[in-house]
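Action item from last week, closing it out:
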Amino acid sequence: MRVIHPPEPYTPDGRPSVYLAGRAVDGDEWREQAATLLATSGYDGTVLDPFPRHPAAGTGRFAAWAPLGWQSTTIRCADVVLFWEPAGPITVADLYSRQVLSGRGSLVVGWGPDTAWRSGMPGRLHHELPWLTVHTTLAATVAAALQQLAALRAA
């Protein structure tokens, strides 16, 4: 399994790819946990992590986000977008309405039980996208991403 961060370029190579979208505040440990869950499942594809691994010295933690082209280009190449605790239902719906997902790409969404009840977000997501399952743990969200990849492979 390989993990790619900005600004490292990504070119699809025929291996499956998962883009880790979602919460970027309060740390990014969930991204590392998701990558570990993918690796321990035997996933041998590419993980596209838009959170910069090494921001330039003295520029602050979010400085590497400045060239947003990496994120907008790379998410369009992903086979599956794993969206953990998105900022809101509009953010998720935008992936569909703006046709960000490739013709064969898919989306899985999860929201942790410790934060979901405070935000009311799963209910809002269900209102906006009633067909979308919102998983309640990161492990369940990763498992759903792996199921989506298997379905894409079988198609």
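Closing note: Strands lie at 2-4, 17-22, 46-48, 80-84, 106-110, 134-135.
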